[in-house]
Amino acid sequence: MFRRLFTALIFTTASLAAGQALGQISLLEKNEIVEKTVSGDYDGVRLLLLRGGNANSTDSNGKTALFEAASNQDLSIMELLMEFDADADWSDDLGNTALYYSVEQARYESVQFLLDANANVNHSNKRGVTPVMMAARVGDPDIFMMLMDAGADPSLRDYSGNTIMDHARQSRNGNMVNVARRAGITD
């Protein structure tokens, strides 16, 4: 028993020494901030943050409350989290950011909020896919243009060598290739 307790203490101390915030270490309990965000409980999230909760604490998949608020297009909770230093560029276990998921789910208001919060429009996940590539693949011309206007790099390729145009060709929206061409994207 003593050995397990000592090992847990060493692990926690080492994690903290490596710069990991205490709020991110949740081996045995669920993340209350994320749970309150999922349920849309603004007052609950605010109270937890005021009591010292970490706006960047994660669930078991590495997603923060900002991911959930963006998914729900809960702009009031998104704003609250940003006031408490939520990282707009935090990436989950797959390397995806709140912006990536907002694009994938066509959450226009969340995309705009995150762009206004200076989220990295060119962040690539563990497969090298950027938000604008996802917008091309999903086939959403409005979000695609929002990202291009925000400075998405049209020359990037994912780790399989696919370009934005390749993603547009795989889109559910047959018009996406034309939209990409009008935006100056070439093969």
From TrEMBL:
<dbReference type="InterPro" id="IPR002110">
    <property type="entry name" value="Ankyrin_rpt"/>
</dbReference>
<dbReference type="Pfam" id="PF12796">
    <property type="entry name" value="Ank_2"/>
</dbReference>
<feature type="repeat" description="ANK">
    <location>
        <begin position="127"/>
        <end position="159"/>
    </location>
</feature>
<dbReference type="InterPro" id="IPR036770">
    <property type="entry name" value="Ankyrin_rpt-contain_sf"/>
</dbReference>
<keyword id="KW-0732">Signal</keyword>
<feature type="repeat" description="ANK">
    <location>
        <begin position="94"/>
        <end position="126"/>
    </location>
</feature>
<dbReference type="Pfam" id="PF00023">
    <property type="entry name" value="Ank"/>
</dbReference>
<feature type="signal peptide">
    <location>
        <begin position="1"/>
        <end position="23"/>
    </location>
</feature>
<feature type="repeat" description="ANK">
    <location>
        <begin position="61"/>
        <end position="93"/>
    </location>
</feature>
<protein>
    <submittedName>
        <fullName>Uncharacterized protein</fullName>
    </submittedName>
</protein>
<keyword id="KW-0677">Repeat</keyword>
<keyword id="KW-0040">ANK repeat</keyword>
